[in-house]
């Protein structure tokens, strides 16, 4: 082989591949640099000139979103951060390049009621098991149809028929308190120690079990039924679906947040009623009766019935019991208000043959309702806010342009503590709700059950349960606070619902002398 052939061979074997690769590398680098430059310039443009550029907020929020796993503290304190942002920047805050938070009462009403925006992406993450419900669906058509089918279960007339079941559970609640008093009684003063927070949670589960399933879980008596345990497991897991959305696929695939015994229990209960033609006037029966609806879309499948009953268990237990617990905590911090409520209830005579007041006797008591309203104002169950998303461009308040696909968080906690709407907003003042109040309550800045088409379908159920429970406790028992417990109760956390960090609140309690 002569020198020219060797040179040609070397060129094709060694030099040419490098010459071919270098241009490809240059092209790839150019594409990467162009893409990075485009993203950076877009971020800078949006931050400085985009439609949300003038909305105040932390500097980083102009450019990027901090992953929720870092901002939404798993210890449940992110609601404090949200309120602090509003305190610093005002009633509208930019949280990240595509998310704002609002606490202006008129803007909240506009978003929830007038514009009736669809729910935000967080609710989609909560569909980890694959089932849409009244609570987590983002589909307006689905929600409207499902709400129409389910609403008869929460009609006021129908709720009156459920009072018998509530009373039965409340009687068991009284018996348990009396037993705990007896077991812990101090002989010097007659007071026993009772974990009232725990028992209120058990009572709420028994009530929703009795009214929705057709049988009490007997949580007040034994506290060991597997269904409430399964529900609690799901509640603890739900925030992780929001913090780590990728978990949703795993949950759906492996059903990680559903105890298999739960499905078996519910299916057996439903099939038993269908096959034996057993009827019971409860929420489950209303859902089962949809099987006979004339239109196919109104007939709930067994899976749909199970999903909705799970929702009722969650929404009808922890939210209600925690609010009642917060009411007692507030009353023990302000004993003069406790005495005032006790006096009001004492003036309502018990009907012949009854050991509990009827809801008809309680529902119009001014101070009882004032205590409940003021508790819900200060202890907003949805303290992290309600998330919505714009489905078109809109002009918020007639002056702020909000583009399509912007996430809007309605910060109820800040609105319900805003001094512009509420004089002495951090004080527990039930008197502000009475007819003779010098300053009337700002109802447009009060959203304990949300508002608009997505408002809480169980509002009247919750109020009925809270009135009966509070009136029973206040009329029957004398309370004394334990200072250490009151101090610990200041540590409030927000997961799916608002709660005290210890998930416990003990009080000194004894039967009243009547």
From TrEMBL:
Pfam families: p450. The keyword Kinase does not apply. Keywords: Heme, Iron, Metal-binding, Monooxygenase, Oxidoreductase. One of its GO terms (molecular function) is oxidoreductase activity, acting on paired donors, with incorporation or reduction of molecular oxygen. Its cofactor is heme. Heme binds at residue 456. InterPro entries: Cyt_P450, Cyt_P450_CS, Cyt_P450_E_grp-I, Cyt_P450_sf, Cytochrome_P450_monoxygenase. The keyword Membrane does not apply. Belongs to the cytochrome P450 family. This is Cytochrome P450.
């Amino acid at each position: 082989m002569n020198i020219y052939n060797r040179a040609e061979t070397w060129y094709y074997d060694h030099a040419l591949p490098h010459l071919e690769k270098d241009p490809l590398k240059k092209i790839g680098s150019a594409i990467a640099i162009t893409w990075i430059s485009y993203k950076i310039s877009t971020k800078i443009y949006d931050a400085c000139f985009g439609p949300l550029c003038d909305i105040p907020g932390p500097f980083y929020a102009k450019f990027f979103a901090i992953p929720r796993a870092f901002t939404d503290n798993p210890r449940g304190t992110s609601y404090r951060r949200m309120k602090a942002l509003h305190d610093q920047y005002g009633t509208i805050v930019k949280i990240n390049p595509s998310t704002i938070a609002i606490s202006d009462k008129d803007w909240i009403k506009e978003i929830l009621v007038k514009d009736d925006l669809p729910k935000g992406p967080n609710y989609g993450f909560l569909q980890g098991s694959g089932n849409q419900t009244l609570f987590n669906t983002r589909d307006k058509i689905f929600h409207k149809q499902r709400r129409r089918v389910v609403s008869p279960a929460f009609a006021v007339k129908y709720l009156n028929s459920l009072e018998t079941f509530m009373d039965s559970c409340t009687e068991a609640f009284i018996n348990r308190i009396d037993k705990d008093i007896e077991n812990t009684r101090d002989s010097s003063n007659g007071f026993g120690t009772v974990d009232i927070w725990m028992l209120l949670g058990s009572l709420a589960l028994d009530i929703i079990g009795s009214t929705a399933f057709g049988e009490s879980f007997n949580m007040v008596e034994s506290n060991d039924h597997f269904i409430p345990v399964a529900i609690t497991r799901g509640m603890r897991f739900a925030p992780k679906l929001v913090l780590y959305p990728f978990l949703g696929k795993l949950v759906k695939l492996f059903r990680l947040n559903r105890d298999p015994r739960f499905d078996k229990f519910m299916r057996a209960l439903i099939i038993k009623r269908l096959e034996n033609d057993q009827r019971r006037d409860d929420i489950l029966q209303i859902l089962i009766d949809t099987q006979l609806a004339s239109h196919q879309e109104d007939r709930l499948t067994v899976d749909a019935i199970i999903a909705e009953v799970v929702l009722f268990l969650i929404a009808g237990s922890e939210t209600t019991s925690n609010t009642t617990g917060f009411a007692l905590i507030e009353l023990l911090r302000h004993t003069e208000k406790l005495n005032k409520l006790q006096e009001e209830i004492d003036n309502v005579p018990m009907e012949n043959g009854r050991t509990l007041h009827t809801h008809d006797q309680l529902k119009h008591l001014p101070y009882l309702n004032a205590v409940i309203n003021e508790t819900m104002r200060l202890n907003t169950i949805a303290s992290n806010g309600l998330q919505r998303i714009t489905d078109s461009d809109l002009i918020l308040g007639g002056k702020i342009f909000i583009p399509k696909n912007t996430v809007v968080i309605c910060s109820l906690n800040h609105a319900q503590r805003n001094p512009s709407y509420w004089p002495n907003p951090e004080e527990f003042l039930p008197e502000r709700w009475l007819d003779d109040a010098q300053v009337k309550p700002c109802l447009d800045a009060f959203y304990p059950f949300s508002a608009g088409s997505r408002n809480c379908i169980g509002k009247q159920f919750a109020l009925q349960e809270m009135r009966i429970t509070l009136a029973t406790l206040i009329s029957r028992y004398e309370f004394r606070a334990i200072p250490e417990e009151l101090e610990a109760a200041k540590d409030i956390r927000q997961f799916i619902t608002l709660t005290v960090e210890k998930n416990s609140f003990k009080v000194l309690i004894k039967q009243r002398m009547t």
